Amino acid sequence: MVRRGSVKDKERLSRAGLIFCKQKLWKLPGAATWKILLWRILTNTLSVGINFVKRNIEIDPSCKFCQGREMALETMEHLFRDCHVSRRLWACSELGIRTNQASFLQIDTWIIDWMVYLEKSECREEQQIRFLATLWCIWSTRNQILFQGVEFHPMMFFNHWSQIVSTGIQAIEELKKGACALEGNSTPLARDNANWVRNSNPICVVGRIGDCGYVRVIVDAGWKGFDKAGVGWIAMSENGQIFHSMERKIKAESALQAEGLGVLLVLLWARERGLRHLEISSDCLSLILQLAGMERRHLLLKAILEEICDCFTSFHCLAFSYVPRRFNHDAHSLACKTMDS
User: Fold this and answer.
1) Which of 202, 204, 230, 276 could form a disulfide with 319 if both were Cys (CB 3.0 to 4.6 A apart)?
2) Tens digit of pLDDT for each residue in 202-227?
3) Residue among 201, 229, 226 nearest 292 (CA)
4) Where along the chain do the CATH 3.30.420.10 domains lie?
């Protein structure tokens, strides 16, 4: 966004803000919406009251938190830092930030200084999540008051804040545990011989295995960014003869999410073709372990796994197995091809 942004966006940013956005903003932990909100704060493009006044739009420009009390103009500094409600929220949060002495600083300078400070602290990612979550909760609570007519109460903010902070921190812990599990579990499985791979040794089986023929699908995903991801799969009959191959371009927030979408697309494709006995092989061990309930579900993968489970009733027998990367080279090539197209 910095590289391709408009000239006006670059003019709104200070030099420190430009360097921060280029080097650190998009690498921060937390939801993408939090980072976009931070970007809009730093570029002063958020729809606060003062910006409506500048555009001669007839709308109440006063702060939505202190109506009937101070009736202050809703600026970026006032909303996120100087309002008496925001001050108490910052002070009562786990960060314990006192904003009384910071009123002379512009909001972009104040935020960047705090983010740089938190980057050097212990539990860096958790602290940054708490900071970003506070900004997001202030903004989302303000929008609830403005658009939904909700009457503000401090507990409304803290319930929302504690929920999204705990979810964000839990996601970081799960990603770390998932990486350790993947590293620890993939090594012994990668040592199997060719017979193990041919027999596939399913890790997760849904339904009852019978003597009827089944279709085996090897699926893989490639991921380089949200708009640069793709999946590819190859379907084989029981005797190993390839009868179908497919590649699809997708959008995903992580490589793990792309792998999950690949499995979901295979299930939807098989269901449309009336296939009822299916074995899906993937080189993403973490995904299969989560399907089998042997690993906690990652936050970004939770909704996709629920959709996958919803497809189970369409099959008589469904098996998921792990296959090392060297044995699914063709599916990987299809995924990379459509990803780079």
Assistant:
1) 202
2) 555 665 555 456 788 899 998 888 78
3) 201
4) 201-340
**Token pair in block for residue 180:** 């350790």
Residue 334 CA to residue 226 CA, distance in Å, equals 18
- Identify the residue whose tokens are 């399907």: 291
Beta strand pairing status for 215-225 and 277-282? Answer: parallel
Which three-class secondary structure state does DSSP give residue 219? strand
Mean pLDDT (10-residue bins), the chain, 341 residues: 45 65 78 84 86 82 73 85 86 82 82 86 82 87 83 74 71 55 37 37 56 77 85 84 86 88 92 87 83 76 87 84 78 84 72
Collapsing DSSP to helix, strand or coil, 228 comes out as: strand
Q: Which helix (H) or strand (E) holds 184?
A: helix 154-190
201-340: which CATH architecture? 2-Layer Sandwich (3.30)
Q: Rounded CA gap, 228 and 286, in Å?
A: 22
Quote the pTM value. 0.51
Give yes or no for a contact between 35 and 26, defined as CB atoms under 8 angstroms apart: yes
